[in-house]
Amino acid sequence: MRLGIDTSTLGGGGSFTHLREVLQAVEPERHGFSRVTVWGSKKVMALLPSGKPWLVAVHEPMLDGPLPQRVAWQCFRFEKLVRDAADLLFIPAGSYQGSFHPYVAMSRNALPFDTAERRRYGVSKNRLRLFLLHYAQRNTFRRADGVIFLTDQGRRLVEPQVRMRGDVITIPHGVSEQFRKEPRPQQPAGAYSEARPFRFTYVSTIDVYKFQWTVAEAVARLRGEGLPVAVDFVGPAYGPSLRMLEATLRRVGESDAIRYLGPAAPADLAGVYHGADAFVFASSCENMPNVLLEAMAAGLPIACSSRGPMPQFIGDATVYFDPEDAASIAAALRELFVDDGLRRRIAAGAYERARSWSWERCARETFDFLAAVGRKHQPRERAA
């Protein structure tokens, strides 16, 4: 059986990591696949693993362009390519408008299916994009021969909105080994000072549902109480949300203690976690919170939003807060800072829970499911 992977609408970030890590970890022959063909942009070609004789990487120049051009490629050029090269199609980005079957799609993004969260964008291009993505993915999932969800909560969000005819499964992502580091000894609060503050790190896109500005307000309150705490925000930024964060930073006036450091290169990200004293995660909407899993694997004490699927992953190995309430966040960060015994317990608990997620497991379960869907829908004469 031959597998084709369409990356024409793959967004980057976690979706790129998933594709790279799964193809690095999998042994397709064990699942009945003789060849895996990936069509993609130059960026996709650069991230694919090398030295895999079963992997065929096809650069399509149209996929280096903007989204409308990539969608046009998928609708008008891709059909012949996939029919000649594949018996089963995998759509990791979750949007496919073609007629090839069988295909398996993946649900990666909760935002298109969460009406309340989409409203946070107001009247904007981003809200329109999510609205259109909702209809594109709903149509994709409805027609798919199989759909992969990352979490049970994501599945519960989508299923009432889409009448799916194909097989459905939940397969969580893994955590890259580069992030894993055993929890460090925890120092008492008195060991920290203005010269050496207790530094939280928040790694995530600056966005309307991530509430970095509320975290900044919470840290400013703690500093007003005389606590030597600080926070670094790391990640790319959605323009309007970055302006909200910058306005908060100007207002609280803590430029040395509350910093936005911009995005980190993938190769540097593990060092960001390993150099922090604790992690804070204030998102209100996630499908699978990859950065939370990375922080857990990095052995960090964590203060976490109580929304979305976060409790499914971190359980009681955290201090929870309401991400929209600066007082709630401040209370959680204060509790984490003053109690080194609590930090020690939850860092150890989060680290142990993170052992449950590996890319080897994700790759094996993904290709098991793909193979099952492929066998179920293969032509009768080929099955014979």
CATH architecture of the largest domain: 3-Layer(aba) Sandwich
- pLDDT averaged residue by residue: 93
Topology, number of strands: 13
Q: Output the structural class.
A: alpha/beta
From the alpha carbons, calculate the radius of gyration and give it in angstroms. Answer: 22 Å
**Named CATH topology of the largest domain:** Rossmann fold
Binned strand content = 15-25%
Total domain units: 2
End-to-end Cα distance, whole Å, is 13 Å
Strand order across the biggest sheet?
Answer: 3-2-1-4-5-6-7
Largest sheet: 7 strands, parallel
Helix content: 40-55%
- Count of helical stretches: 16
**Could you name the CATH class of the largest domain?**
Alpha Beta
The helix-strand sequence is: EHEHEHHEEHHEHEEHEHEHEHEHEHHHH
List segments where confidence is low: pLDDT < 50 over at least 5 consecutive residues: 380-384
How would you describe this structure to a colleague?
With 384 residues, this protein is α/β, with parallel strands linked by helices. The chain has two domains: 2-174 and 358-383, Rossmann fold, CATH 3.40.50.2000; 177-354, Glycogen Phosphorylase B (Rossmann fold, 3-Layer(aba) Sandwich), CATH 3.40.50. The chain is built from 16 helices and 13 strands. It has helices at 14-25, 42-47, 67-76, 78-85, 115-119, 125-143, 152-158, 212-224, 239-252, 269-274, 290-297, 310-314, 326-338, 340-354, 359-377, 380-383; strands spanning 2-6, 35-40, 55-59, 88-91, 103-107, 146-149, 167-170, 198-203, 229-234, 258-262, 278-281, 302-305, 319-321. α9 (239-252) links the parallel β9 (229-234) and β10. The two termini are 13 Å apart. The relative contact order is 0.13. Residues 380-384 have low confidence and may be disordered.
